[in-house]
Write a structure and sequence with these properties.
The protein has a single domain, classed as Roll (Thiol Ester Dehydrase, Chain A), CATH 3.10.129. It is about 15% helix and about 35% strand. It is globular, with a radius of gyration of 19 Å.
Length: about 300
């Protein structure tokens, strides 16, 4: 990487942000509802890998937000002021080190650990890596690495699809019963169809004001998308559900990478397959395109 490219952002590396949360169980219960089920008592006593995303929400004032709905990058944020139009959640990983319970206050530290300008096939990109460290009762419980990518989009080349009717269904996530794989382990398949009510509810639960998830006119006229974009974290949460509902041991680590966007009303397929004793590999596809890959490590 050319040091001159990174010079405007070097001062953001190591910048920290601190927050706290009472960890009210109602938020986890609400998240489980969006995912189409009730949480178990064990999940409230030890939150699954990605469920901390409904906690530590930052309060916003309208003046704090940019034209895309996100917090303005720069002085008020650990994210540098990258001058491009699009922001996407590229992927991340979560390590579960100790139980993280609802109803017990917790603390979170967010650190900007890396800023990487890169040249892509369709233009310049900037990758920003954030580390989130969550502690409870003085013990480190979760370490998450979050990867964001900033870029200006090339001309749209998305496969055509029919936008859902405004009076259509609210959205759904469902799974078939797990099947035994020939070489041991299991195979599980599911379907996600995310409609605008599901997208709006997930945005509210996770404190995500990005307009690509709830403002169709903004998506189409400003960012060039054909419709509302399904959150990368919602796809990751759906991928994790393929493991949580299979009666396996708890997940000790989960990582995911976004490959291609999925839009409101599109039906996506989730496929999970256990590899060996401790790894589950998951893919989400839509219209024949690979949209997300994920991997869950099972606790011993």
């Amino acid at each position: 990487m050319d040091p001159a490219q990174n010079a405007p952002y070097a001062g953001y590396i190591g910048r920290e942000e601190h927050s706290a949360d009472s960890m009210a169980p109602e938020r986890a219960i609400a998240l489980a509802g969006v995912l189409g089920r009730e949480p178990t008592g064990g999940e409230l006593a030890d939150l699954p890998a990605l469920w901390h995303w409904v906690y530590f929400l930052r309060p916003y004032r309208p003046a704090d937000l940019g034209p895309d709905g996100h917090l303005r990058r720069g002085d008020a944020s650990v994210v540098p002021p990258v001058p491009v139009r699009r922001r996407m959640y590229a992927g991340g990983s979560v390590k579960l080190l100790a139980p993280l319970a609802t109803g017990v206050p917790a603390e979170k530290t967010t650190i900007c650990t890396k800023v990487e300008p890169k040249a892509g096939r369709s233009g310049d990109l900037v990758f920003v890596t954030l580390e989130h460290r969550i502690s409870q009762r003085g013990e480190l419980c979760r370490v998450e690495e979050q990867s964001l990518v900033f870029f200006d989009p090339p001309p749209a080349t998305y496969r055509p699809f029919e936008l859902p009717a405004l009076d259509g269904e609210a959205g759904s996530l469902s799974f078939e019963e797990a099947e035994a794989a020939e070489a041991g382990g299991f195979i599980r398949r599911g379907t996600l169809r995310a409609m605008s009510p599901m997208l709006f509810t997930y945005s509210a639960l996770t404190g995500n004001p990005h307009k690509i998830h709830y403002d169709r006119a903004y998506c189409q006229s400003f960012e060039g998308y054909p419709g509302l974009v399904v959150h990368g974290p919602l796809l990751a949460s759906a991928a994790l559900e393929s493991v949580l509902g299979a009666g396996l041991a708890k997940v000790s680590e989960f990582d995911f990478r976004a490959r291609s966007p999925i839009f409101e009303g599109q039906e996506s397929e989730i496929s999970a397959r256990q590899r060996g004793d401790s790894t589950v590999e998951i893919e989400i596809t839509c219209q024949g395109d690979l949209c997300m890959t994920a991997s869950a490590t099972l606790a011993g």
